[in-house]
Amino acid sequence: SRISQFALPEAPSMLRRLLSGQARGRGRVTVYEVGPRDGLQNEKQPVPLAAKIRLVDLLSASGLTKIEAGSFVSGKWVPQMASSDAVLGGISKKPGVVYAALTPNLRGFEAALAAGADEVAVFGAASEAFSRRNVNCDVEESLRRFKPVAEAALKAKVPLRGYVSCVLGCPYQGKVSHSAVTSVAHRLLELGCYEVSLGDTIGVGTPDTMSRLLESLLNSGLRPTHLAAHCHNTNGQALANISAALRFELRTIDASVAGLGGCPYAGPGASGNVATEAVVAMLHSNGYETGIDATKLGEAGDFIRGVLSQLKAEAAAKEETKK
Protein backbone atom coordinates (compact mmCIF):
# COMPACT_ATOMS: atom_id res chain seq x y z
CA SER A 1 0.00 0.00 0.00
CA ARG A 2 0.99 3.65 -0.27
CA ILE A 3 1.25 3.87 3.52
CA SER A 4 3.65 0.93 3.81
CA GLN A 5 5.97 2.59 1.25
CA PHE A 6 6.80 5.57 3.49
CA ALA A 7 10.46 5.63 4.50
CA LEU A 8 10.52 6.10 8.25
CA PRO A 9 14.02 5.46 9.58
CA GLU A 10 13.54 8.16 12.23
CA ALA A 11 10.01 7.14 13.23
CA PRO A 12 9.19 5.58 16.60
CA SER A 13 9.35 1.78 16.54
CA MET A 14 5.58 1.52 17.06
CA LEU A 15 4.94 3.69 14.01
CA ARG A 16 7.37 1.71 11.86
CA ARG A 17 5.59 -1.47 12.92
CA LEU A 18 2.18 -0.03 12.10
CA LEU A 19 3.14 1.27 8.69
CA SER A 20 5.04 -1.86 7.70
CA GLY A 21 1.79 -3.79 8.02
CA GLN A 22 2.87 -5.95 10.96
CA ALA A 23 0.05 -4.77 13.24
CA ARG A 24 -3.23 -5.66 11.59
CA GLY A 25 -5.32 -6.69 14.58
CA ARG A 26 -8.91 -5.52 14.98
CA GLY A 27 -10.31 -4.16 18.21
CA ARG A 28 -12.88 -1.82 19.65
CA VAL A 29 -13.54 1.59 18.14
CA THR A 30 -15.40 4.34 19.96
CA VAL A 31 -17.82 6.22 17.74
CA TYR A 32 -18.23 9.72 19.13
CA GLU A 33 -21.69 10.95 18.16
CA VAL A 34 -21.78 14.69 17.39
CA GLY A 35 -25.16 14.89 15.64
CA PRO A 36 -27.20 16.58 18.39
CA ARG A 37 -24.63 19.40 18.46
CA ASP A 38 -22.57 19.60 15.28
CA GLY A 39 -25.37 18.08 13.23
CA LEU A 40 -28.24 20.30 14.30
CA GLN A 41 -26.46 23.61 14.81
CA ASN A 42 -26.75 24.50 11.12
CA GLU A 43 -30.46 23.82 10.73
CA LYS A 44 -32.35 26.97 9.74
CA GLN A 45 -35.69 25.91 11.21
CA PRO A 46 -35.80 25.67 15.03
CA VAL A 47 -35.85 22.02 16.05
CA PRO A 48 -38.37 21.47 18.87
CA LEU A 49 -36.89 20.70 22.27
CA ALA A 50 -38.87 17.46 22.53
CA ALA A 51 -37.34 16.27 19.25
CA LYS A 52 -33.80 17.02 20.43
CA ILE A 53 -34.40 15.11 23.65
CA ARG A 54 -35.92 12.19 21.77
CA LEU A 55 -32.97 12.08 19.38
CA VAL A 56 -30.44 11.87 22.21
CA ASP A 57 -32.47 9.15 23.93
CA LEU A 58 -32.65 7.11 20.72
CA LEU A 59 -28.91 7.47 20.23
CA SER A 60 -28.33 6.34 23.82
CA ALA A 61 -30.48 3.27 23.20
CA SER A 62 -28.37 2.31 20.17
CA GLY A 63 -25.27 1.54 22.21
CA LEU A 64 -23.32 4.74 21.57
CA THR A 65 -21.26 5.61 24.64
CA LYS A 66 -20.18 9.16 23.73
CA ILE A 67 -22.84 11.68 22.68
CA GLU A 68 -22.29 15.41 22.27
CA ALA A 69 -25.72 16.64 23.31
CA GLY A 70 -25.36 20.40 22.93
CA SER A 71 -23.28 23.54 22.96
CA PHE A 72 -23.17 26.33 25.52
CA VAL A 73 -22.42 29.18 23.15
CA SER A 74 -24.24 32.44 22.61
CA GLY A 75 -27.77 31.84 21.36
CA LYS A 76 -27.27 34.95 19.24
CA TRP A 77 -24.61 33.23 17.15
CA VAL A 78 -25.94 29.66 17.17
CA PRO A 79 -29.69 29.88 17.93
CA GLN A 80 -30.25 26.15 17.49
CA MET A 81 -28.11 25.45 20.58
CA ALA A 82 -29.94 27.87 22.91
CA SER A 83 -31.88 24.99 24.51
CA SER A 84 -28.86 22.82 25.34
CA ASP A 85 -29.44 23.12 29.09
CA ALA A 86 -33.01 21.91 28.66
CA VAL A 87 -31.84 19.03 26.46
CA LEU A 88 -29.37 17.81 29.07
CA GLY A 89 -32.01 18.25 31.75
CA GLY A 90 -34.68 16.40 29.79
CA ILE A 91 -32.92 13.31 28.49
CA SER A 92 -33.12 9.91 30.15
CA LYS A 93 -29.48 9.37 31.03
CA LYS A 94 -28.30 5.84 30.42
CA PRO A 95 -25.58 4.37 32.66
CA GLY A 96 -22.29 4.08 30.81
CA VAL A 97 -23.08 6.85 28.34
CA VAL A 98 -21.08 10.10 28.46
CA TYR A 99 -23.12 13.18 27.56
CA ALA A 100 -20.84 15.98 26.40
CA ALA A 101 -21.19 19.66 25.56
CA LEU A 102 -19.11 22.25 23.72
CA THR A 103 -18.06 25.02 26.13
CA PRO A 104 -15.91 27.75 24.54
CA ASN A 105 -15.62 29.87 27.69
CA LEU A 106 -15.91 29.70 31.47
CA ARG A 107 -19.50 30.89 31.46
CA GLY A 108 -20.42 28.10 29.06
CA PHE A 109 -18.53 25.57 31.16
CA GLU A 110 -20.38 26.57 34.32
CA ALA A 111 -23.73 26.38 32.52
CA ALA A 112 -22.90 22.94 31.10
CA LEU A 113 -21.84 21.67 34.49
CA ALA A 114 -25.05 22.97 36.07
CA ALA A 115 -27.07 21.27 33.32
CA GLY A 116 -25.44 17.91 34.00
CA ALA A 117 -22.84 17.52 31.24
CA ASP A 118 -20.42 14.64 31.93
CA GLU A 119 -17.72 15.97 29.63
CA VAL A 120 -16.92 19.29 27.95
CA ALA A 121 -15.03 20.36 24.86
CA VAL A 122 -13.19 23.38 23.50
CA PHE A 123 -12.91 24.18 19.81
CA GLY A 124 -9.79 25.61 18.21
CA ALA A 125 -8.36 25.88 14.71
CA ALA A 126 -5.06 25.18 13.01
CA SER A 127 -5.75 27.97 10.52
CA GLU A 128 -5.14 31.60 11.45
CA ALA A 129 -7.66 32.82 8.87
CA PHE A 130 -10.35 30.44 10.11
CA SER A 131 -9.72 31.39 13.73
CA ARG A 132 -10.15 35.08 12.95
CA ARG A 133 -13.37 34.44 11.02
CA ASN A 134 -14.77 32.05 13.62
CA VAL A 135 -13.80 33.59 16.98
CA ASN A 136 -12.34 36.95 15.93
CA CYS A 137 -8.83 36.33 17.24
CA ASP A 138 -5.64 34.54 16.25
CA VAL A 139 -4.90 30.93 17.16
CA GLU A 140 -2.64 31.83 20.09
CA GLU A 141 -5.28 34.05 21.69
CA SER A 142 -7.98 31.41 21.19
CA LEU A 143 -5.84 28.90 23.08
CA ARG A 144 -5.24 31.38 25.90
CA ARG A 145 -9.00 31.83 26.21
CA PHE A 146 -9.41 28.11 26.83
CA LYS A 147 -7.16 28.15 29.91
CA PRO A 148 -9.90 29.15 32.41
CA VAL A 149 -12.13 26.37 31.05
CA ALA A 150 -9.30 23.85 31.33
CA GLU A 151 -8.50 24.90 34.89
CA ALA A 152 -12.16 24.73 35.91
CA ALA A 153 -12.58 21.32 34.29
CA LEU A 154 -9.51 19.99 36.10
CA LYS A 155 -10.78 21.33 39.42
CA ALA A 156 -14.23 19.82 38.87
CA LYS A 157 -12.72 16.56 37.59
CA VAL A 158 -14.67 16.87 34.34
CA PRO A 159 -13.00 15.35 31.24
CA LEU A 160 -11.99 17.94 28.65
CA ARG A 161 -11.84 17.21 24.93
CA GLY A 162 -10.25 19.42 22.28
CA TYR A 163 -11.23 20.01 18.66
CA VAL A 164 -8.87 21.29 15.98
CA SER A 165 -10.58 22.43 12.80
CA CYS A 166 -9.09 22.83 9.32
CA VAL A 167 -6.39 20.18 9.80
CA LEU A 168 -6.33 19.30 6.10
CA GLY A 169 -7.33 22.61 4.55
CA CYS A 170 -9.04 25.94 5.20
CA PRO A 171 -11.83 27.65 3.22
CA TYR A 172 -10.05 31.01 3.61
CA GLN A 173 -6.30 30.35 3.43
CA GLY A 174 -6.13 27.02 1.59
CA LYS A 175 -3.33 24.75 2.80
CA VAL A 176 -2.62 24.31 6.50
CA SER A 177 0.83 23.14 7.58
CA HIS A 178 1.39 19.98 9.58
CA SER A 179 3.42 22.03 12.04
CA ALA A 180 0.42 24.27 12.73
CA VAL A 181 -1.80 21.26 13.44
CA THR A 182 0.87 19.62 15.58
CA SER A 183 1.40 22.79 17.60
CA VAL A 184 -2.30 23.23 18.40
CA ALA A 185 -2.74 19.54 19.23
CA HIS A 186 0.16 19.62 21.69
CA ARG A 187 -1.11 22.84 23.27
CA LEU A 188 -4.58 21.37 23.80
CA LEU A 189 -3.11 18.29 25.45
CA GLU A 190 -0.91 20.49 27.64
CA LEU A 191 -4.03 22.39 28.71
CA GLY A 192 -5.49 19.13 29.96
CA CYS A 193 -7.48 17.71 27.06
CA TYR A 194 -7.51 13.92 27.19
CA GLU A 195 -8.10 13.70 23.44
CA VAL A 196 -7.83 15.94 20.39
CA SER A 197 -10.30 15.53 17.54
CA LEU A 198 -8.78 16.31 14.14
CA GLY A 199 -11.35 18.01 11.93
CA ASP A 200 -11.26 17.98 8.14
CA THR A 201 -13.64 20.93 8.23
CA ILE A 202 -14.16 21.38 4.50
CA GLY A 203 -13.77 17.75 3.49
CA VAL A 204 -10.74 18.18 1.24
CA GLY A 205 -8.72 15.36 2.77
CA THR A 206 -7.68 12.17 1.03
CA PRO A 207 -6.25 8.97 2.49
CA ASP A 208 -2.81 10.18 1.41
CA THR A 209 -3.04 13.62 3.04
CA MET A 210 -4.64 12.14 6.16
CA SER A 211 -1.84 9.56 6.41
CA ARG A 212 0.88 12.16 5.99
CA LEU A 213 -0.68 14.36 8.67
CA LEU A 214 -0.96 11.47 11.12
CA GLU A 215 2.62 10.46 10.38
CA SER A 216 3.74 13.97 11.35
CA LEU A 217 1.63 14.02 14.49
CA LEU A 218 2.88 10.65 15.70
CA ASN A 219 6.47 11.54 14.89
CA SER A 220 6.04 14.61 17.12
CA GLY A 221 5.47 12.39 20.13
CA LEU A 222 1.70 12.15 20.12
CA ARG A 223 0.10 8.74 20.50
CA PRO A 224 -2.91 7.33 18.63
CA THR A 225 -4.82 7.35 21.93
CA HIS A 226 -4.43 11.14 22.04
CA LEU A 227 -6.25 11.57 18.73
CA ALA A 228 -9.66 11.19 17.12
CA ALA A 229 -10.70 11.61 13.48
CA HIS A 230 -13.50 14.00 12.51
CA CYS A 231 -13.97 13.63 8.74
CA HIS A 232 -16.41 15.47 6.52
CA ASN A 233 -17.79 13.79 3.43
CA THR A 234 -17.98 16.85 1.18
CA ASN A 235 -15.95 15.10 -1.54
CA GLY A 236 -16.98 11.55 -0.72
CA GLN A 237 -13.68 10.70 0.98
CA ALA A 238 -14.72 10.46 4.63
CA LEU A 239 -14.82 6.67 4.95
CA ALA A 240 -11.53 6.27 3.10
CA ASN A 241 -9.94 8.88 5.36
CA ILE A 242 -11.31 7.12 8.44
CA SER A 243 -9.81 3.87 7.16
CA ALA A 244 -6.45 5.63 6.91
CA ALA A 245 -6.82 6.84 10.51
CA LEU A 246 -7.62 3.32 11.66
CA ARG A 247 -4.42 2.05 10.04
CA PHE A 248 -2.56 4.47 12.29
CA GLU A 249 -4.41 2.94 15.25
CA LEU A 250 -6.71 5.86 16.00
CA ARG A 251 -9.63 4.31 17.81
CA THR A 252 -12.08 7.19 18.23
CA ILE A 253 -14.09 8.35 15.23
CA ASP A 254 -16.49 11.32 15.24
CA ALA A 255 -19.70 10.96 13.25
CA SER A 256 -23.13 12.54 12.95
CA VAL A 257 -26.35 10.56 12.76
CA ALA A 258 -27.97 10.82 9.31
CA GLY A 259 -24.93 12.77 8.11
CA LEU A 260 -26.33 15.96 9.57
CA GLY A 261 -24.51 19.24 9.61
CA GLY A 262 -21.08 20.73 9.64
CA CYS A 263 -19.46 23.94 10.86
CA PRO A 264 -21.64 27.05 10.34
CA TYR A 265 -18.54 29.22 9.80
CA ALA A 266 -16.68 26.97 7.39
CA GLY A 267 -17.98 28.56 4.19
CA PRO A 268 -19.71 27.20 1.08
CA GLY A 269 -19.49 23.45 0.46
CA ALA A 270 -18.32 22.61 3.96
CA SER A 271 -21.39 20.77 5.15
CA GLY A 272 -21.28 17.02 5.15
CA ASN A 273 -20.50 15.34 8.45
CA VAL A 274 -20.00 11.66 7.79
CA ALA A 275 -23.08 9.62 8.71
CA THR A 276 -22.77 7.55 11.87
CA GLU A 277 -24.73 4.77 10.17
CA ALA A 278 -22.13 4.56 7.38
CA VAL A 279 -19.21 4.64 9.80
CA VAL A 280 -20.67 1.86 11.96
CA ALA A 281 -21.43 -0.28 8.90
CA MET A 282 -17.87 0.16 7.64
CA LEU A 283 -16.37 -0.64 11.03
CA HIS A 284 -18.48 -3.76 11.50
CA SER A 285 -17.75 -5.01 7.98
CA ASN A 286 -14.03 -4.69 8.70
CA GLY A 287 -14.16 -6.62 11.95
CA TYR A 288 -14.08 -3.77 14.46
CA GLU A 289 -16.26 -3.83 17.56
CA THR A 290 -18.37 -0.78 18.46
CA GLY A 291 -21.07 -2.03 20.83
CA ILE A 292 -23.62 -0.27 18.62
CA ASP A 293 -26.87 -1.82 17.40
CA ALA A 294 -27.09 -0.75 13.76
CA THR A 295 -30.86 -1.22 13.64
CA LYS A 296 -31.47 1.04 16.63
CA LEU A 297 -29.00 3.57 15.25
CA GLY A 298 -30.99 3.55 12.02
CA GLU A 299 -34.14 4.31 13.98
CA ALA A 300 -32.50 7.43 15.41
CA GLY A 301 -31.48 8.51 11.91
CA ASP A 302 -34.96 7.91 10.52
CA PHE A 303 -36.48 9.89 13.38
CA ILE A 304 -34.40 13.03 12.94
CA ARG A 305 -34.69 12.93 9.14
CA GLY A 306 -38.46 12.80 9.56
CA VAL A 307 -38.44 15.75 11.96
CA LEU A 308 -36.29 17.89 9.69
CA SER A 309 -38.29 16.96 6.61
CA GLN A 310 -41.49 18.05 8.32
CA LEU A 311 -39.95 21.33 9.47
CA LYS A 312 -38.77 22.11 5.95
CA ALA A 313 -42.18 21.27 4.50
CA GLU A 314 -43.88 23.55 7.02
CA ALA A 315 -41.45 26.37 6.26
CA ALA A 316 -42.02 25.96 2.52
CA ALA A 317 -45.79 26.04 3.04
CA LYS A 318 -45.49 29.29 5.00
CA GLU A 319 -43.46 30.84 2.20
CA GLU A 320 -46.13 29.85 -0.30
CA THR A 321 -48.84 31.60 1.70
CA LYS A 322 -46.82 34.83 1.60
CA LYS A 323 -46.85 34.92 -2.21
From TrEMBL:
PROSITE patterns: HMG_COA_LYASE, PYR_CT
UniProt-listed InterPro entries: Aldolase_TIM, HMG_CoA_lyase_AS, HMGL, PYR_CT
Record key words, sorted: Lyase, Metal-binding
A GO molecular function held by the record: hydroxymethylglutaryl-CoA lyase activity
Keyword RNA-binding attributed: no
CDD domains: DRE_TIM_HMGL (cd07938)
Domain Pyruvate carboxyltransferase stretches: 29-298
Biological process, per Gene Ontology: ketone body biosynthetic process; L-leucine catabolic process
Gene3D superfamilies for this protein: Aldolase class I (3.20.20.70)
Pathway, per record: Metabolic intermediate metabolism; (S)-3-hydroxy-3-methylglutaryl-CoA degradation; acetoacetate from (S)-3-hydroxy-3-methylglutaryl-CoA: step 1/1
Catalytic activity: (3S)-3-hydroxy-3-methylglutaryl-CoA = acetoacetate + acetyl-CoA
Entry EC no(s): 4.1.3.4
Enzyme class: lyase
Keyword Lyase listed: yes
Similarity annotation: Belongs to the HMG-CoA lyase family.
The protein, known as: hydroxymethylglutaryl-CoA lyase
Organism: Macrostomum lignano
